[in-house]
Amino acid sequence: MTRFLLILFSAISLTSCVAVKEYDKVYLNDEEMQLAIKGMEQFEVNFQIYREAASGGNGGKTGGGCGCN
Amino acid sequence: MRRIFLGVFCLITFIVSAQDTLSTAYKKRVLEATEIDLLFSHYNQDGIHAAVSGGDGTEELTDVTSSLIVRMPLNEDDVLTVDVGISAYTSASSSDVNPLDGDPNRPVSSYIASSGASRSDVLTHLTPSYQHSSDDRNTIWGVKGYVSSEYDYFSVGFGGSYTRLFNEKNTEVSASAQVFLDTWNPQYPIELRGGFFDDRIMGNGTYSPVFEAFANENRNSYSLSLNFSQILGKRVQGSLFMDLVSQNGLLSTPFQRVYFGDRDDFYIDEFQLADDVERLPDTRVKVPLGGRLNVYVNDLFVVRSYYRFYSDDWGIASHTASLELPVKIGNAFTIYPMYRFYTQTAADYFFEKEVALSTFQFYTSDYDLSAFDAHQYGMGIRYKDIFTSTKVFNYGLKTLDLRLNQYDRSDGLSSFIVTFGASFVAD
Fold this sequence. Notes:
The structure holds two protein chains of two kinds. By secondary structure, chain A is mainly α. Chain A is 35% helix and 0% strand. In chain B, strand 18 (327-329) and strand 19 (333-344) form a beta hairpin. The longest helix of chain B has 25 residues, at 2-26. Chain B is elongated, with a radius of gyration of 27 Å. Chain B starts with a helix and ends with a strand. At the A-B interface, helix 1 and helix 2 of A face strand 1, strand 2, strand 5, strand 6 and strand 7 of B.
């Protein structure tokens, strides 16, 4: 946990001065560059939640539903 | 003097009103037009460690799911999304809740799915959500609801999220919270239900399991998610995330059998009768954390990477890493090979068949809670119609997606999933 918070703090510190202008975000705005999971991946995330003990983390249901089959 | 003040007040009011009108008139809409996604999936799995038969039996399962997602702009700032879906499945796991209700001419076995009524079920869900963006688009908040129902389980949930963008929209911080209030309609193995009798029972002595039904039939889940996203350059962006999930209530699955090592074994044909069902603690705290890093290498390749570490207070720790490599072929097509690796340690309460003792407080033979590695590999293809020239009624086709994925677990479970999606946008 401490390590994660350190990484988070370092990431914020190191990158807070980076400011890519709107007109320079053509690559970042590409559909493949989105940081969330794609809608199509939701079905795969669902079966992973059912078949694995881990869940949560940037997309996917973290509670609710039994997933018991 | 009064006239001057009145005149200045009217002038200011007019200017502010005019600015509001102007800003409204020229404000770019968050969502330009109504969008519709049609999604379908076909999932098939098999294995030899069915939890319903104490970790020894077929895990055969087929699931067909379809979803309709509609995103509607309510005005320049607000978007309403409705996600409705239905999932129909047939599983050996659910059929073996009552392995005796099938064809009387077939042997009763945990490796032969019964053809009785319990073998299939339908899950329906409805997820409405509402999202509001501020005028400068630097603040976004949303609320979400969730309802799902299947024969033995009902779930209702709600949640909210808040997102703030800084640094010329190069930095994004978001927090969200969700609550799920679920209710079981417990289905116990047929032999553990009151009044069960069958003259085919074989074994030493009399089959008399010490079984007690669960008193609490509710399961509540509370989750808090934090996300930090940062643009790291003109072609690189990443995010870090962390969830905190707390669950309480009936966290065991009522129909998953357990066979004790210190009890005699009883059978009907080849099917071993339960000593008990799994018993798991009534609380669980989960903490997943990790990050994503996406790189736009060039006009041909994009690299999408993901890593997650997970830990919970049942003794499970896991690592997940995935890599997707979208390859753009012209303006219309993208193919994306993908690979995902997953590994987990076993829960403290996991025991293989006949290993747990009846004196233990908690036990399960659900191999989803055992130690294993899993490899998932697949391929996807996307067609993008940038002019939305193909029309269906008043909607233009935006994208077509097809994904194929194979999933292999080190304990022998194997599955294959096909997903297909079509996105349309209103003219």
